[in-house]
Design goal:
The strands form 5 sheets. Strands 2-1-3-6-7 form a 5-stranded parallel β-sheet, with helices on both faces. The two termini are 45 Å apart. The protein folds into 4 domains: 123 residues, Response regulator (Rossmann fold), CATH 3.40.50.2300; 167 residues, Rossmann fold; 82 residues, Helicase, Ruva Protein, domain 3 (Orthogonal Bundle), CATH 1.10.8.60; 54 residues, Arc Repressor Mutant, subunit A (Orthogonal Bundle), CATH 1.10.10. By secondary structure, it is an alpha/beta fold.
């Protein structure tokens, strides 16, 4: 049976403290109540808690003192309670380490949702830290920037596979980093001091595929003035990486299978096979099982290369990796272009995190590099981002139109309204304008775009 989560509830209002304690107890939480700053600090020093639910206005001091003192001990596990009119204080609390805040009077259902979200986030963070500890020194795997337990598990698995001698099939959408993964596997394998040869199977003309991969003898065809060993012989004792293996012609698939089965390569027009000792890494952005069903890929070859499999998830499925990757690419761009872009604003980060990234990590890298090359010298802000990110639901073709200032402003307002669940008071505070100004901007935009769907107000 799972142990109940233990919450320290710091609230000086006795009726509210008792009501919240009873409600949380009925929902399988263990609650320790505290009515003042001094008692809360004593409780935190005496025992560990799973979460701190903290009122900021206490009779003997400010709840911010607890945040400053215990934020490292309780990272992302403090939720503050704030009364109407103290939104600025709540925002300050989040900057000091609070994970979230709730306005009084507290909505019970929203409270439960918030607590569950905090525990889910804390668990994901813990899992990721555990994976990073387990991964330890990864050689070339340290080239991967990630914050998600999902990607951490992929790296952990790849590291174990690297130590074997088996063929590995790396699958994933275009731009997810399959070639980087192959390089890391080779660098951590027993063959790391031997050559790694990469072959893009999609780029080899069909009539040259056999000679390119397996070599040829002098006179094998017009222009063959000397023997050529081919990629497999050149990679002897090392590793060969066959990128986009699903694009190989059917006749080459059959020859490749024989090489993998027998460890022998026969150059074009040669009667003597050449023994090779090679580890094969293959990659594809196709569903090879479906290619087999459609008879576009040999079943026997598929089962031969599918000894071990690594599936790299798309960037949209690991959103917590987006901002660390963007900041990583920004550091590279700053060095390459001698820029001094200080970082990415909070709203720009939200836009980047919400975008689906169909081109995955490659698209994110190119986006950051383009922004850097455009000459911005401060923070990356929403107006610096491509229109496809500002308006992700639209289908763009050809040249992308730059948004007007009014369009950028209303897109920003819409996003803040969604994030605050249409709480106009909180949205206005975040936007730095009055509630009446917010309402006026919405009405003005609706008048201009009366044929479009109206914004919820």
């Amino acid at each position: 049976m799972e142990k109940k989560k233990h919450i320290l509830l710091v609230e000086d209002d006795k009726p509210l403290r008792e009501a919240l304690g009873k409600f949380l107890g009925q929902n399988d939480f263990q609650v320790t109540p505290s009515a003042c700053l001094a008692d809360a600090i004593r409780q935190l020093e005496e025992r560990p808690f799973d979460l701190v639910l903290l009122d900021l206005t206490l009779p003997d001091g400010n709840g911010l003192d607890i945040l400053e003192r215990f934020s490292r001990q309780y990272p992302d596990r403090m939720v503050v309670l704030t009364g109407t009119g103290s939104i600025e204080t709540a925002v300050l609390a989040m900057k000091k380490g609070a994970h979230d805040f709730l306005q009084k009077p507290v909505n019970p259902e929203l409270l439960l949702i918030t607590l569950r979200r905090v525990f889910q986030f804390a668990q994901a963070r813990s899992d990721c830290l555990d994976l990073k500890k387990e991964i330890g020194t990864l050689g070339n795997f340290d080239k991967f920037t990630f914050n998600s337990s999902m990607m951490g598990e992929v790296i952990r698995l790849a590291r174990h596979y690297a130590a074997t001698t088996h063929t590995i099939l790396i699958s994933g959408e275009t731009g997810t980093g399959k070639e980087l993964m192959a390089q890391a596997i080779h660098a951590c394998s027993q063959r790391k001091n031997q050559p790694l040869l990469s072959v893009n199977c999609a780029s080899i003309p069909e009539n040259l595929a056999e000679s390119e991969l397996f070599g040829y003898k002098k006179g094998a065809f017009t222009g063959a003035y000397a023997d050529s060993p081919g990629k497999f012989i050149l990679a002897d004792h090392g590793t060969i990486f066959l990128d986009e293996i699903g694009e190989l012609p059917a006749n080459i698939q059959a020859k490749l299978l024989r090489v993998l089965e027998n460890g022998e390569v026969t150059p074009l027009k040669s009667k003597n096979p050449v023994r090779v000792d090679i580890r094969v890494l293959a990659a594809t952005n196709k569903e090879l099982e479906e290619e087999v069903r459609q008879k576009r890929f040999r079943a026997d070859l598929f089962y031969r290369i599918d000894e071990l499999k690594i599936q790299i998830p798309p960037l949209r499925d690991r959103k917590t990796d987006i901002i660390p990757l963007a900041e990583h690419f920004l550091r590279i761009a700053n060095l390459a272009d001698s820029r001094r872009i200080s970082g990415i604003s909070a709203e720009a980060q939200r836009l980047l995190a919400d975008y689906a990234w169909p081109g995955n990590v490659r698209e994110l890298k190119n986006t950051i590099f383009k922004i850097s090359a455009s000459g911005h010298q401060s923070q990356i802000r929403p107006e610096h981002l491509p229109v496809k990110i500002l308006q992700p639901g639209k289908n763009f073709s050809g040249d992308e139109r730059e948004l007007s200032l009014a369009e950028i402003e209303i897109a920003h307002i819409q996003r803040v309204l969604r994030q605050t669940a249409q709480n106009h008071t909180l949205a206005a505070e975040i936007l730095g304008i009055s509630r009446s100004s917010l309402y006026r901007k919405i009405v003005e935009w609706q008048k201009k775009k009366k044929n479009r769907k109206k914004i919820s107000i």
